[in-house]
Amino acid sequence: MKIIFLDFYGVMDGDYEWQRQRKSYDPYERFDPRCGARVKRIHEETGALVVITSDSVQDCTGHWEGAPSDEQRYPDCKKLLVGCGVPEEIIIGYTYQPPDSLPVYDRTRQIKTWLDEHPEVENYVILDDLMLPFSEEDVAELTTDRNWPDQEKVRRYLDQLEPYPEMLPHFVLVRPPEGQWRQDALRDEHVERAIEILNG
Fold it and tell me: Which structural domains are found in the chain, ordered by start?
């Protein structure tokens, strides 16, 4: 089995012009169908299935009503992907966000946990718009480049954070070219790299 660990925001949003001109404001149609088609292409050319890694504290439809659990949020997350053209049958799960985690920066541990629970996985790719902490240097940098409001919690968390350098070859950083912030998030070059990783 092959897996696409898929983040949402910054990956599936689409470019500035698409967001500005889109006619539907249905919360389940907030992502760009072109990005959905690109995820579908990765699946078609590799057989990879989708596991959701987005860990926003708001629910996936964008309404702030407390912090729903991962289990409560998952159906909405699936609807978001289906709404932009990702086939529902290829979305098979999500990574669990522990209560003691920091959003985004605990994502490598969440992915590692999911992989440990699914030894049948032969290969995977991680699509994310943020550079995740894969090395000890990345972990150390978190303490210096962020103004965290709860420094004590962060320190406790970072003391337990483990680097996973073995994940780096499976990682595709989804960012627009320098100076082209209006470009769509998930682009063809990211798709090509993901296919290369999964079929390698």
Answer: 2-132+166-198 (3.40.50)
